[in-house]
Amino acid sequence: MKYIFIITILFSKLFAGFQSDLQTLHKMYENNNFNKACKFGTNKIVKYKKSEQFLSIYAFSCLKDDQIDKLARASALLKHSPQARANSVFFSTILLQKKLLLHAMIDGFKIKTLQLPSTEHILSKVFDLVMNENIDNYETAHELLDSKNHNEKYKLFVKKENENKKIVIEHYLNNNLINTHQYW
């Protein structure tokens, strides 16, 4: 009887800790503190690797903070429900598109013949536009017009920082810069 009581207390403390961490992560996400939520989730991912809710909020936080590489770990763990698998495909698609754009822009890899799913994420939109433009040379910046909204355009170029190269996407609306995204 004594052991059942101790086990019950331990389980309730563990569950309360999980609920507290999940609420903390969710609150950070809702308050647009994506960088903070991504860091928090990174520190807790091993502890909550079976919680698809925690993993999804964590991955969406990292995605919104342009920390695309962190999607790989969450994507690999999201596998137990249809929604988790759909999220995994979404995250994997964006990660692959980023890697392919880097490979094309820095190494000259031809991506024109590849077919990948599309998403509404900016990286995915730019990837699709690059596929339609048939760009062969990435040594200069490229302006890409959104085919659905002609007031939107993207400027895509490679930026060298120290010895690293990264992709930069500038997002314009009515010729006004509204966002800059950098991926390496």
Residue runs with pLDDT of under 50 for 5 or more positions: 1-16
Output the CATH class name of the largest domain: Mainly Alpha
Q: Would you give the CATH topology of the largest domain?
A: Serine Threonine Protein Phosphatase 5, Tetratricopeptide repeat
CATH architecture of the largest domain: Alpha Horseshoe
Overall, the morphology is globular
Tally of discrete structural domains? 2
Helix content: 40-55%
Q: Count the helices. How many?
A: 6
Description of the structure:
Helices cover 53% and strands 17% of the residues. The protein is an alpha+beta fold and 184 residues long. It folds into two domains: 80 residues, Serine Threonine Protein Phosphatase 5, Tetratricopeptide repeat (Alpha Horseshoe), CATH 1.25.40; 75 residues, no CATH class. The protein has a four-stranded antiparallel beta sheet. α2 crosses α3 and α4 packs antiparallel against α5. The longest helix has 29 residues. The termini are far apart. 24% of the residues are buried.
